Amino acid sequence: MAAIIWDRHLATGCDELDEQHRTLIDTFNRLCALAGRGDWNHDEIEGSLIFLRDYTLVHLETEQELMARHGYPLEAEHRRLHSDLVQDLEAIVDGFHRGTKDLTPVTLEYLDQWLQRHIRNEDFRLAEFLRHAEARTRG
């Protein structure tokens, strides 16, 4: 699994979201590196999975607070996508902890696709809305 390279195609222009996205991408890249090493330090991988889950929750709370504060019209759908991801992350972390789920290329591909697709689609729309909302406020 190739690492995600941060570039302008992932930058939403919202500094707070972009900083959090970079942390999520760095954590994902760390998981890819750990999975590719071959010696599979279970505790190290589990710690990174837990951090990814927990930091994702922090990030999603940030987005949801911004959506609520600014009256984002697509908030309900965006929250549903967040809820689906949280359920999936919980299942991945729980399964890995119990030993019933490995960190497979399929799992890494899912996380890669979800993260990049969500940033490029949902978060770009949100960031554009926030820029317009802030411009109207300054006005």
UniProtKB/TrEMBL annotation:
InterPro entries named in the record: Hemerythrin, Hemerythrin-like, Hemerythrin-like_sf, Hemerythrin_metal-bd
Protein name in the entry: Bacteriohemerythrin
One MF term in the entry's GO annotations: metal ion binding
Provenance organism: Mesoterricola silvestris
SUPFAM superfamilies documented for this protein: Hemerythrin-like
Alphabetical keyword list: Iron, Metal-binding
Sequence similarity: Belongs to the hemerythrin family.
Database matches in Pfam families: Hemerythrin
Domain of life of the native organism: Bacteria
Domain Hemerythrin-like: 14-128
Entry annotated with the keyword Cell inner membrane: no
